[in-house]
Amino acid sequence: MRWRVTLTSGWTSKVHRHGLMVALAAGAWGLAMAGAGWSGTIWLVLFFLAVAGAADGVSGIFRSTIWNNTIPDHLRGRLAGIELLSYSTGPQLSQIRAGGVATLIGVRASIWTGGLACVAAVLCSVGLRGFIRYDDRTWVPASTSQDSRG
C-alpha cells in the first residue's frame, strides 16, 4: 500500500500544514498497528497492515518535504548523518521493545501496545506547536549565511 501512496502523491502538493500531516499520519499508523494487534482474523490484520503502510508512506513524504525545506544548506551533511543514525537504529530499538514486550505479555499485545504508544507520542506532539503549525506558505527560512554556522 505504501507504494500506492508514493505513486499517487500528487495530492500532497495541495497540503501545506506538513507538520500536522506528519502527526496525523503517525497517529493513523499507530491506530492501524493497534487494530492489527487486536484483530483475530488474518484478513483484518492484513487490512490494518496495509493502512499502516499507507500512513507510513504519507508520513515519509511530508517528513522529507519538511527536511528539504527547513534545513540550511551548510547543515545538511551533519543532519543527514544524524538522520541516517536515526533511521538505522530506530527500527532496531523498536524490535528490542517489541520482543521484550512479546516475551512478557504475548505477540498480539506487543503489537497493539506499540501502536497505542505511538498514538500517545503523537498526542504529546501537540505541545510542539512550531511543528504542528508548520505551514510551507508562511515559513521563513533562517539565515543560511556562513556566519551563522556557530
UniProtKB/TrEMBL annotation:
Upper classification of the organism: Bacteria, Bacillati, Actinomycetota, Actinomycetes, Pseudonocardiales
Organism: Kutzneria buriramensis
Principal localisation: membrane
Protein name: Transmembrane secretion effector
Membrane-traversing stretches: 20-36
CC per GO annotation: plasma membrane
Membrane topology: Multi-pass membrane protein
SUPFAM superfamilies: MFS general substrate transporter
Keywords attached to this entry: Cell membrane, Membrane, Transmembrane, Transmembrane helix, Transport
Subcellular location(s) per record: Cell inner membrane
